[in-house]
């Protein structure tokens, strides 16, 4: 990992005004990229799917699962996303889609700013996990101990329902903050020599100046990804590559 002072911060680029038609165009371009190179899409999406299946096998809700999702997944996910961005970037430039060069580009990111982004995401997810456990303890700590894996009645009590509402509200806010920090920062770091702080600030500007459009984009990603996870995560082989390629094209429209 490089010293984060090694890359000089660049001036923030201008942010374009996005519309819902830009989202539609980005999705169409993302679908087009996926159809042109489905092998790359399935390969990088497979990383997410294998990790998700591993969590399911080891058991969601266990200490092992919490530790793994908080540390391993956020470190690997940015590199898989960068692979999809690199494929779209090469298509955009008319360059050949060579496995060796694309995987080499992804590997080269370990010496740039992407690992710092992974570290920020890890810290963020750990804080999120801690806060979720604290909310659970605040509402349910004085309740009679119940095995929630076999009995869900405790969640139907007034305390349980209030806890669920608070968890969803806090989780939604934290998820959108993380989305705002990363929606354009990862492709930004791939394309330009900027530090990760500059990239995140730029991503926040994109969201702030296009709040409604980016809320719709975040909702689409969350909703369709959830649906794609239902059939044993298999739908992610389509949803994740399409959204990955589309994110590249949205980034190109957002920063000028």
Poorly predicted regions = 1-9
Using only C-alpha atoms, the radius of gyration works out to 19 Å
What order do the SSEs take from the amino end to the carboxyl end, as H and E?
HHHHHHHHHH
Share of helical residues: over 70%
| Oligomeric composition of the shown chains | single chain
Arithmetic mean of pLDDT: 84
For the biggest sheet, the summary is: none
Q: Please report the distance between the alpha carbons of the first and last residues.
A: 29 Å
Give the amount of beta strand, in percent: under 5%
Description:
The longest helix has 31 residues. This protein starts with 19 loop residues before the first helix and ends with a helix. With 256 residues, the chain is an all-alpha fold. It has ten helices and no strands. The N terminus is likely disordered. Helix 1 packs across helix 2, helix 1 packs across helix 10 and helix 5 runs antiparallel to helix 6.
């Amino acid at each position: 990992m490089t010293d984060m002072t090694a890359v000089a911060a660049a001036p923030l680029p201008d942010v374009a005004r996005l519309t819902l038609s830009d989202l539609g165009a980005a999705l169409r371009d993302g679908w087009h990229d996926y159809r042109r190179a489905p092998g790359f899409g399935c390969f990088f999406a497979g990383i997410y799917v294998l990790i998700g299946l591993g969590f399911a096998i080891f058991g969601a809700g266990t200490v092992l699962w919490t530790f793994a999702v908080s540390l391993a997944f956020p470190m690997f996910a940015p590199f898989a996303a960068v692979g999809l961005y690199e494929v779209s970037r090469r298509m955009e430039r008319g360059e050949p889609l060579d496995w060796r060069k694309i995987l080499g580009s992804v590997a080269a990111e370990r010496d740039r700013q992407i690992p710092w982004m992974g570290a920020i995401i890890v810290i963020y997810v750990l804080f999120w996990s801690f806060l979720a456990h604290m909310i659970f303890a605040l509402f349910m700590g004085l309740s009679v101990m119940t095995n929630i894996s076999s009995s869900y009645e405790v969640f139907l009590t007034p305390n349980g329902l209030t806890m669920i509402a608070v968890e969803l509200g806090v989780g939604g806010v934290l998820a959108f903050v993380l989305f705002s920090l990363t929606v354009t920062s990862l492709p930004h770091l791939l394309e330009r020599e900027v530090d990760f702080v500059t990239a995140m600030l730029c991503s926040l500007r994109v969201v702030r100046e296009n709040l409604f459009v980016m809320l719709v984009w975040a909702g689409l990603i969350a909703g369709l990804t959830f649906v794609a996870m239902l059939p044993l995560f298999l739908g992610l082989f389509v949803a994740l590559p399409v959204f990955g390629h589309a994110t590249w094209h949205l980034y190109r429209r957002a920063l000028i």
